[in-house]
Amino acid sequence: MSTTSFPTVALVGAPTDIGAGARGASMGPEALRVAGLQAALESHGLQVEDRGNLSGPANPWRPAVDGYRHLDEVVAWNRAVHDAVYAELTKGRLPILLGGDHCLAMGSISAVARHCRATGRKLRVLWLDAHADFNTSALTPSGNLHGMPVACLCGFGPEALVRLGGEGPALHPQQVRQIGIRSVDAGEKRFVHEQGLEVYDMRYIDEMGMRHTMEQALAGLDADTHLHVSFDVDFLDPDIAPGVGTTVPGGPTYREAQLCMEMIADTGRLASLDVMELNPALDVRNRTALLAVDLIESLFGKSTLMREHQVRKSTFQT
Questions:
Q1: Predicted local distance difference test score (pLDDT) of residue 212
Q2: 187: domain range?
Q3: Catalytic: 115?
Q4: Which of 149, 214, 259, 263 is most deeply buried (CB count within 10 A of its CB)?
């Protein structure tokens, strides 16, 4: 797949850990820049424009109120993200949101859903994560909103977050494919099953392999589908990606992660991307950011294969 098929890429930084339970993800955007993200993408022939960082309220680091920590601040940050991502989409650009914690995906995906409604396109979301992020205030004792974005996007959350895109909810559970999941609370697990979320957890990947997993997750994509990837860096095994606030052992290996990204690239449908939860304060010499940049390159067509690259579009499309 040629990189000339991609529109201009717009980097949008959201330097906040407002929804997280640990400090440090606010430094994620700069760590990705220091790791050479823009130059790496440009080396593959892409046009890249760095929009700098969004601004929003400081993290007050307060306990939960009525089941949510920092709700007003989370809403403010997500409105800023929504507006920035939607503006890039309306200009025909491919936005990459540099997080920041994963609560910010509520803003980006609400913008993508709004754009799809306006253009009459279907939406598919790939959620690459160690966690299902399908908690609600009734299910989680912490109140950390970075554990709730998928639930909020599907309509289970505060009105201000459910309706970020002007209509709500942004997603139906059947539009989401979760990959790499291996840490889910008991109540959250029941709720995931009740709502019919399609989850490819690590046991599924262990049993079926990453290739089959991705074939299933990408099945049915066509030319009218906008593919959004929300990549939480804790998706990766902490042995290769220690720089995250919520490490969970047993994640995808380097090669499994590369295959995942390469097969997404093979579809030619990637149209927006989140890169979330990178925490340089917990990293070793920016190692996790460098790995994230490597994997993002693969999303845009870099291949580790020695053989001639073969596009497998027919595998995924109906």
A1: 98
A2: 3-316
A3: no
A4: 149
102 is an annotated ligand-binding site residue: yes
Yes or no: say if 75 and 160 are a contact pair by the CB < 8 Å rule.
Answer: yes
Non-local CB neighbours of 11 within 8 Å, separated by 6+ positions: 33, 37, 38, 48, 49, 50, 51, 96, 98
* Widest Cα–Cα separation across the chain: 56
One of 129, 237, 256, 266 is an active-site residue; which one?
129
Number of domains the chain contains: 1
Instruction: Give how far Cα 309 sits from Cα of 2, 105, 301, Å.
Output: 11, 32, 10
- pTM over 0.90, yes/no: yes
Active site residue 232: yes
Q: Could you say which of 102, 115, 226, 228 is catalytic?
A: 102
Q: Cis (ω within 30 of 0) for the bond into 169?
A: yes
Question: Would the annotation count 129 as a binding residue?
Answer: yes
Q: So what's the pLDDT on residue 51?
A: 98
Q: What is the pLDDT of residue 7?
A: 85
5-34 burial string, b = 16+ CB within 10 Å, else e? ebeebbbbbbbbbbbbebebbbbbbbbbbe
- On average, the pLDDT of the chain sits at 94
